[in-house]
Design brief:
Strand 4, helix 3 and strand 5 form a beta-alpha-beta unit. The chain is globular. It contains 10 helices and 10 strands. The longest helix has 27 residues. It folds into 2 domains: about 160 residues, Nucleotidyltransferase, domain 5; about 160 residues, ATPase, nucleotide binding domain (Nucleotidyltransferase, domain 5), CATH 3.30.420. Bound molecules: 5'-O-[(R)-(carboxyoxy)(hydroxy)phosphoryl]adenosine (KG4) and zinc ion. The site of zinc ion (ZN) has 4 residues, from helix 4.
């Protein structure tokens, strides 16, 4: 079954072709092609994602990217057996671009269309790496919008073990980077700066490290960074970045291992943009190795938003479900009862 997947939830337009073969465990072999356009350059001058610009750019990019993916895979649109798109969560206008293009294509081709949850895409992306993990496993999901620990028993079987009570880990990286004058998106820039600094020269808090169960809290860290960067001690920004990164990594590592222990599982999967962080990978692999836990990461290019994870998750779902109609929705929230007469 050949599935075309479209991701357009935020600031990346991603299209991929995934060929599902029932019973094949080498999932990666099914990824025939993927094409991606990042809007980062466009949003950078505003210091963050501008939703209307994002939507318009998705419109410009999505069909050329689909043509490119088809050409790279040496397939034609007529060979596609199903379409997957990111249905949410994300920016409403941006999601609508993927949803409407996917549904129109599905209708024209008379093939089934499936809406995929963006985080399910992230969660399953480590299955596209060499030596994929087997269910059940614990997933540490660390993106710009979410920080969650899940128990994953199978496709669509997700139990929340813990999550952030305020900022997501990626959001903390982005906001701290902004405080340090590093621009948007801050995660990779802050990590690069941290590599030249030394953690521990100043001391930042490790929020909820000793408590809070499996929940996280990162919003206090940016305040601590703000104080540190204005303090008379005049810390080098590289040292502040290194200590910030170490603080986040300390908490993520401790809670991820605690989640494995609490669920009696020895397989851990890391997904989402912050999963690209090199320091997190080093520290997590070392700590997990010492306790007999195996950690699986997506390859770096599949940590951040992409079409491959959506095509893959959609293919798994289409392979085990019957087709619906061609109605579609994204989930913007607007309560009709809140309107008042002019
Ligand atoms: O998963 P993702 O691409 O988009 C969302 O669904 O949110 O994650 C983006 C987040 C951003 O906050 C970005 O700063 C962060 O991932 N990020 C990183 C790194 N690469 C991306 N954070 C820390 N270190 C990195 N190397
Ligand atoms: Zn994402």
């Amino acid at each position: 079954m050949l599935v075309l997947g479209i991701e357009s939830s935020c600031d990346e337009t991603g299209v991929a072709l995934y060929e599902h073969v029932t019973g094949r465990r080498d999932y990666r072999a099914g990824l025939l092609a993927q094409a991606l356009h990042s809007q980062i350059g466009m949003h950078a001058e505003y210091g963050g994602v501008v939703p209307e610009l994002a939507s318009r750019d998705h419109i410009r990019r999505v069909l050329p990217l689909a043509r490119q993916a088809l050409a790279d895979a040496a397939r034609t649109l007529g060979q596609v057996d199903g379409i997957a798109f990111t249905q949410g969560p994300g920016l409403a206008g941006a999601l609508l671009v993927g949803a409407s293009v996917a549904t129109a294509l599905g209708f024209a081709l008379r093939v089934p269309v499936v809406g995929v949850h963006h985080l399910e895409g992230h969660l399953l992306s480590p299955l596209l790496a060499d030596d994929p993990p087997d269910f059940p496993f614990v997933a540490l999901l660390v993106s710009g919008g979410h920080t969650q620990l899940m128990r994953v028993s199978g496709l669509g079987e997700y139990a929340l073990l813990g999550e952030t009570m305020d900022d997501a880990a990626g959001e903390a990286f982005d906001k701290t980077a902004q405080l340090l004058g590093l621009g948007y998106p801050g995660g990779p820039a802050l990590a690069a700066l941290a590599a030249g600094g030394e953690p521990g020269r100043l001391r930042l808090p490790r929020p909820l490290l000793g408590g809070g169960g499996l929940d996280f809290s990162f919003s206090g860290l940016k305040t601590a960074v703000s104080l540190a960067s204005r303090s008379e001690a005049a810390h080098a920004t590289a040292d502040i970045a290194a200590e910030f990164q170490e603080a986040v990594v300390d908490v993520l590592v401790a809670k991820a291992l605690a989640a494995c222990a609490a669920s009696d599982l020895d397989t851990l999967v890391v997904a989402g943009g912050v999963g690209a962080n090199q320091r997190l990978r080093e520290r997590l692999s070392a700590a997990a190795g010492a306790t007999g836990i195996r950690v699986h990461y997506p390859e770096a290019a599949l940590c951040t938003d992409n079409g491959a994870m959506i095509a893959f998750a959609g293919a798994l779902r289409l392979a085990s479900s019957s087709a619906g109609d061609y109605g579609f929705s994204v989930r913007p929230r607007w309560d009709l009862e809140s309107l008042t007469a002019p």
